[in-house]
Specification:
384 residues, alpha/beta, Rossmann fold, 7-stranded parallel beta sheet, 4-stranded mixed beta sheet, 11 strands, globular, binds manganese (III) ion
Length: 384
């Protein structure tokens, strides 16, 4: 009899959250849902709570508390509201693992609280490591907490490292699909629309990450995420465009040998691996067929046209608050693009201007990062 893992899902109404619930539903002998949190989707939270019967649910939007509370009245489920409540429920005794699947900077505070309480993290919120990689990784180390990557590229690296013990990484290659605008020129990108940017060729994801994929900022954020997860130097991280999204990333060891992890693009696989680690559990996910993909191809990313990738590499190399400022400006820029306030090519412009107007500081305490995030959002908004 295996002990069932008690799982908290932060951001259960989103793309990763709903796919995680599908994984848990398919494996009731392995997992139990203990906590669900959403930002504002009360209807879906209620539906999920009735189905999975967690011990507690939180809705960040306090105006929806009564709706959720009334709907779940007859059930033995504790209902809370507000972002502070999310920071508290992640510390509940019964939890074994916390899946952080909320969008953007909002993931930082609850992730810190969960690590402080000694909970292992299944990390789907890459912004947390981009903003506060140093802080998060050293806190996790001091608390003996494991951070299991859910991002498909990082899950691939993590899987390639299984059994390698202390063998050193020479280099990693993060693969990128190139997004919907791969091959387009700057001139052609002038007039691309929100609808076009939201159509990712291979992966089904939320709006924010889909726009990040179109600008290549997603890959830039993943480069920084990889630096912290695997303790790498900037020159050990490279990006290669692989339009089929079958090879999810590659590790090159010091003897020159390379290991790659591959499979059909389906986020349920890395989610399940992170939740079940170190075990692999049986799944009925569609299997890869070589004959459907007679060619796997690779090219260099177009860094001149898609400037966000180099902005992220530079922010990582300089360090200090640069990645935090980059992330905040990007969140404002993506939101503005989704509201038709700026064009696609103005996204990197806004980020670059914000980086030049917010002073760098070496301080990476939580207080200084919170201040840098706040200032960067104000500066980015003033530039709109
Ligand atoms: Mn990814």
């Amino acid at each position: 009899m295996i002990q069932k893992k008690q799982v908290a899902i932060l951001g259960s109404s989103g793309s990763i959250g709903t796919q995680a619930l599908a994984v848990i539903e398919a494996n009731p002998q392995h997992f139990e849902v203990a906590v669900l949190t959403v930002n504002s989707n009360a209807a879906l939270l209620i539906e999920q709570a009735r189905k999975f019967l967690p011990n507690a649910v939180v809705i960040a939007d306090e105006s929806k508390y009564a709706t959720v509370k009334n709907a779940l009245e007859a059930l033995p489920i504790k209902v809370y509201a507000g972002s502070k409540a999310i920071e508290q429920v992640v510390q509940m005794d019964e939890l074994d693992i916390v899946l952080t699947a909320m969008v953007g900077y909002a993931g930082l505070a609850p992730t810190i609280k969960a690590i402080e309480a000694g909970k292992n993290i299944a990390l789907a919120n890459k912004e947390t490591l981009v903003v506060a990689g140093q802080l998060i990784t050293s806190l996790a180390q001091s608390k003996g907490v494991n951070i299991y990557p859910v991002d498909s590229e990082h899950s691939a690296i993590f899987q390639c490292l299984a059994g390698e013990w202390n063998n050193k990484i020479e280099k990693i290659y993060l693969t990128a699909s190139g997004g919907p605008f791969r091959g387009k020129t700057t001139d052609e990108l002038k007039s691309v629309t929100k609808a076009q940017a939201l159509k990712h060729p291979n992966w089904t994801m939320g709006a924010k990450i889909t726009i990040d994929s179109a600008t290549l900022m997603n890959k830039g954020l993943e480069v920084i995420e990889a630096k912290w997860l695997f303790q790498l130097q900037p020159e050990q991280i490279d990006v290669i465009v692989h339009p089929q999204s079958i090879i999810h990333s590659i590790v090159q060891f010091t003897d020159g040998s390379m290991k790659a992890q591959m499979g059909l693009p389906d986020m349920k696989l890395p989610i399940q691996y992170a939740l079940a680690y170190p075990n692999r559990i049986v799944s009925d996910f569609p299997r890869f067929n070589f004959l459907d993909y007679p060619q796997l191809t690779f090219n260099q990313p177009d860094r001149k046209t898609f400037r966000c990738l180099d902005l992220a590499f530079e922010a990582m190399a300089v360090g200090g608050n640069r990645p935090c400022v980059l992330n905040a400006a990007n969140e404002i820029a993506v939101a503005a693009f989704l509201e038709d306030k700026i064009s696609f090519l103005q996204i990197p412009e806004l980020i670059e201007k914000t980086l030049s107007q917010v002073e760098n500081s070496a301080g990476t305490t939580l207080e200084s990062l919170v201040a840098a995030d706040f200032e960067s959002r104000a500066v980015a908004n003033s530039l709109l």
